[in-house]
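User: I'm putting together a teaching handout on how multi-component assemblies are represented. Below are the sequence lines for each component of a complex, exactly as they appear in our records. Could you produce the 3D structure of the whole assembly as structure tokens, so the students can see both representations side by side? Please keep the chain order the same as the input.
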Amino acid sequence: MSNVSTSNNHDNLHIFKGLNSQQIKAVEATGGPLLIIAGAGSGKTRVLTHRVANIIHQGTEPYRILALTFTNKAAQELKERISNIVGYELSRDVWAGTFHSIFARILRIEGNKLGYNPGFSIYDTDDQTSTIKTLLNQLKLTPQEYPPNQIRSIISKAKNAMVDYESYADEAKSHFEKTVAIIYREYEKYLLSANAMDFDDLLINMIRLFELDKETLEKYRNKFRYIMIDEYQDTNRAQYKVIKLMAAAHNNICVVGDDAQSIYKWRGADIRNILEFQKDYPSARIIKLEQNYRSSGNILKAADSVIDKNKNQLKKELWTENPEGEKITIINCDDDRQEALKIADLISQKSESGIKYKEIAILYRTNAQSLPLENALRRENIPYVIVGGISFYKRKEIKDVMAYLRMLINPQDDQSLLRAVNEPPRGIGKTSLGHFQEYARKQNISLLDTFERAEEVLPVVGRAKKSARRLWQTVTDYRKLMEVENPASVVKDYINAVGILEMYKEIGTDEALDKFNNIQEIITDITTFFTQNTQADLNDYIQQISLASDIDNSDLSGNSVSLMTLHSAKGLEFPHVFISGLEQGLFPSGRSEGDISELEEERRLFYVGITRAMNNLTVTYCSRRMKFGEIQRQAVSVFLKEIDHSVTRWIGGQPPLQNSKKTSLSGTPVSTGSNILGSWRSRVTQSTPKKKSQYDQTVEESYSQLHDSLRTGDRVLHSKFGEGKLIEISGIGDQQKVVVKFDDHGKKNMIAKFAKLQKL
DNA sequence: GACCTGCTGATTTTT
DNA sequence: TCAGCAGGTC
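Assistant: Of course. Below is the structure of the complete assembly, with chains in the same order as your input.
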């Protein structure tokens, strides 16, 4: 054997090390279409990363590789792990990202061909809804008859299915649909003139671009020699189409997915994409990854027995060499409060036996379920992090600031102006705004332009005119500054100039001060962004924020229990998992009742939940639950009847199969129930006094995990306020707050997560 | 035009 | 239960 071959073998060792035979096959098969059916916990990401490494190793330039994921977090993980194999220098140039962020990046370069400026705004669902409200107003339609949210959803569905407003109008039958068609048309016109795209447009416009301009299509076909798509089962028709267009020249397309984990049908994901991959690419190879490395034998058996009830699925057999492990614990509770207390108590017990909080996750069907859980965890002094839910970036004050920023980049963005105009109040009320909007429409100019010519807009009162003109002046001044000066400092001055900070300071309530601090933190965030990305402009920052979700930012590295919806949990794993609320009407959701395909999707969601667990799984359900502020009786979920009873252990209730009657505590009156509740309660109360000192420890411990073992009294460094002394820590998880007395800036309240304090 | 109050409807999941 | 909004008052 020659030297070359020896050195190849050596490199190959690096790329193929630790992979099983199926995984090696997938990593080796770099050319041509490939479908990887990857069961839960079968090392999918591992295969993807090693496959990219192999392609690079074979001599392909990294920038010719496109890897599309569903979430930013998955993309980030992919990049990191590729970097671990091939090194940062090579991995940096791989195009790895979400569909939305990669397409936004391309559309910023090519969007002018479709009539967009590079500074286009990206509208989220809120922006979409308020746009529709504006349009209803213009069209003299009432939101009662045409609920903005419903209209938004109809339009979005149409777009995802690639039905434009003309086709929609052709198909429209009822008066309602015909009117929706008009709103749809006006909506599209409005967004284009506002130089804005909604999430769906980021996909649709890629198709438009490629169909309109063959040269551009050729350019990207040539550029991306290798295309890889993660979570292929969750792609929708539009995504499918873009990929198909891009891959058509070389056919080096590799998709990875698991039909059993398809949980986004409601959002337009089309399972046909994965089921019919072979039809689209007859030469496709199919490789199945069926060995599960994550879960214990019992957990896998439970998962398997559940998913088995679904009729529509690809055949695959997941197996594991892992030990059988413990049985799945199923606990019946009186109500949601007791459920939360029991979970918290079990977590305390786990913690006492040496299990770390960060090894534990609580999963639920709806975000609303987190509240009683949070209360119980706080009561037991257990640190926790909520993943998802209301994002920092979706808070009103942050969105207001973002609206101001978008005006700098995209002065055509009327929705941003409408959002920001009265934060703080400027005396430009509904009536005046109506006149401005009317004028803008007649003159075919942007709303901000009408503020410049406020004098010409006749029916508006003098005060409003002055105020409008002043706002226009501020925006224009800072737009000019932005062109020549450092974006971070311009942004800082600009936000101060518009007066939103001052407004919250003047209100002075706790709530207002929180908002004030949040805005301070976003300014810090911006400063950090520009320090780290010296080449970037404000547009880059805004785009990143527009496409960010809270899951991406959640830091699961601290020692806290993770709380999240089952949807958010996809792609994650935890040694110990709780799934709560296994009740009819909650999980499966009431909306899936009577619809087999929706019920199957709920069942896949349960499957996803079960397969997040590595060693230990606990499932809970309640006999009663607070709903709409009322106590309602709950029936046990059908899914619990489906779990293989040989791997389950039932506590406080009986397996529904053996007793199809109500499994409440065997007819026991309330007193027994409250007795049990009492016993749980007393455990908690008893432990409270003696835990007093432990409390501070726990909180400080959680804090220290997150922030380099900080304690009250420490000297700390903040990127903006400089040095100071940490005088108070309160709350836990994302909500954790710190009070720092800065040498030069006095006392500040901050959210720990964003303060990013450094110990000195 | 800003602020207050009382009513209503929401609870699936999110890039 | 509670947030968000419409409608009324100052």
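A couple of points students might notice: The longest helix of chain A spans residues 462-484. The mean pLDDT of chain A is 82.
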